[in-house]
Amino acid sequence: MEDASGEPPVMWGTNIVGFGTRRYRYASGRTGETPFVGYSPRGTALSLYLALEFDDVREDLDKLGPHRLGKGCLYITRLAGVDEKVLIELIERSVAAARQLGES
After folding, report:
1. Rg from Cα positions in the chain
2. Cα(63)–Cα(29) distance, integer angstroms
């Protein structure tokens, strides 16, 4: 993730490692910050926080290997079970999308 984002790892709270920072603003005016990409080693899965529309990367997800999806999260139970090249591509696409979202 550090290679894909060009950013060093930073702790976000107590259990998320994030790379890069983007600022966002809701229509309500509320603002916040989120990393370009991040991960958290949870008890049942590795949670990856991505800035992707998963429907747009369905072909890559089909090639990835065993995983589950949440809203903005990709859950991987066994890292050894996924295609590393596909995972790297998804991370790189997420960084690019987060950078673009941060500019809007």
Report:
1. 14
2. 39
The tens-digit pLDDT sequence of the chain (104 residues) is 999 889 999 999 999 999 999 888 888 999 889 899 999 998 889 999 999 999 999 999 999 999 999 988 999 999 999 999 999 999 999 999 988 876 54
Q: Which one-letter DSSP state was computed for residue 43?
A: S
Structure tokens at 59: 């072909």
Q: Give rounded-to-5 percent helix, strand, coil for the chain.
A: 35, 30, 35
| DSSP secondary structure code for residue 25 in this structure | E
CA distance 64 to 75: 12
Helix or strand (DSSP H, E) at 41:
strand 37-41
Q: What is the reported pTM?
A: 0.87
- Structure-derived torsion over alpha carbons of residues 7, 24, 47, 20, reported in degrees to the nearest 10: 0
